Amino acid sequence: MFQKRIFPIFVYLNSKQWATVLLFVFIWGVSTLGYWKKYEWNPSSMVNFGYEFALQNQAETPEKAVLFKGEKGDLGAGYDGQIFYYFSRPLSEFNLNWPKGFDESYRAPRIGYPLLIAIFGFFGKTTAIFGMYFWNIVLTLVSYFYLRKLLNEDTKPYAILYLISPFALGSYYVLVSDTVMVSILVIAYYYYVKENYIPFILLSSLAILTKEPALFLLFPLGLTSVFRKDWKRILVVGSVLIIPVCWHLYLAYRFPNWRPGRLTDFILPFEGLISYMESIWASLATGNHWKDLARLFSRFPLVVLFFLGLFLPFTGQLKKGWEFRISFLLIMFMVGTAGYYHFWSVYENVSRMFTLSIPVLLLLINEDKTVHKKEYILLTLFILVLFLVKVVLISKQLGYQIGIVGF
Predict the structure, then answer these.
(1) Which of 275, 333, 281 is nearest to 309 (CA)?
(2) Inter-residue contact 167 to 358 (CB < 8 Å)
(3) Which of 2, 140, 302, 339 could form a disulfide with 374 if both were Cys (CB 3.0 to 4.6 A apart)?
(4) 116-153 per-position pLDDT tens digit
(5) Is the distance from CB of 330 to CB of 216 less than 8 angstroms?
(6) Which residues have C-beta within 8 Å of that of residue 109, sequence separation ≥ 6?
(7) Spatial separation of the C-alpha atoms in residues 283 and 289, rounded to whole Å
């Protein structure tokens, strides 16, 4: 099926880049409009402002913003996109005041995305929201063409998977940082391969400050340099930590209760997977509505993808591309140790943890064509179809209001 039906489509799209970009615009456009339609065609809806937090940060909340009421399914009040927006506002005003109501323990280190948003935020609150769309869309497209330059002719057709990744799309759908981090990291890796180290160090530092899983690719690169005793590259890869470490030192001074090990609190091996499977049995036993069951089962393909991802790095010629195999396993480790409440209970939370797996898989295929990739690719495409069905037919409208006044 893959060689006869799917791969020829990849080959065609590879030969017609205009069609590839058009497909990207169509998929992301349908997702965007499908979301806006539920909330009076208001672009601020994808930021997911929660009324609770908008009330605490009124001065920085757009007047006509869509504000979500707390209810079961959205963890109480909006979603993470609002955190990046609110943190960008003081940066646009040249200060580092942390927005009210948000836990700085593990959010404050992720200054990269707010810093990018703040560039647009100089021109106002509405422009800051535009910046969130801009960076997700533009960086994805730009990094796609950078990635293609890294791939040989046999691997290039698979690059379309990066552009239509359901995980990158899922991150964009709620305007959070995963897609931005991965895009920056791909561009940084291009400069690493081309031995243009200054852009590599700066972009890699920005990627780490955007989200810590950037280290899942950078660490294996450093490890490879150590084994090869390439002292120059050891120094280069090590240098990407200087800016993040300086930022963490500032946070330790700025927030007395802050500690870099806070993220380890979320490492709960297989707790999320086990609790998710238990929730399925409980739901089947109570006979929930089909839409509720559909929302619940939307995460099940990710369970299958996780186990495929554990198997994949141990296929093919193991001596080839081992740095990407390690990177892939680190991503799967993150998925496997994610807890239920913060991750597996919400589709978007667990889905976007797979975002980095797509470019790492492509780089691995570029090194070793014999990797068992077909199953992972087919399931990823199936998840994309399911995501679009979810957007158009299943996702329900949440309780909301326009602006703070009149709640």
Answers:
(1) 333
(2) yes
(3) 2
(4) 999 999 999 999 999 999 999 999 999 999 999 999 99
(5) yes
(6) 209, 212, 244, 247, 248, 251, 260
(7) 9
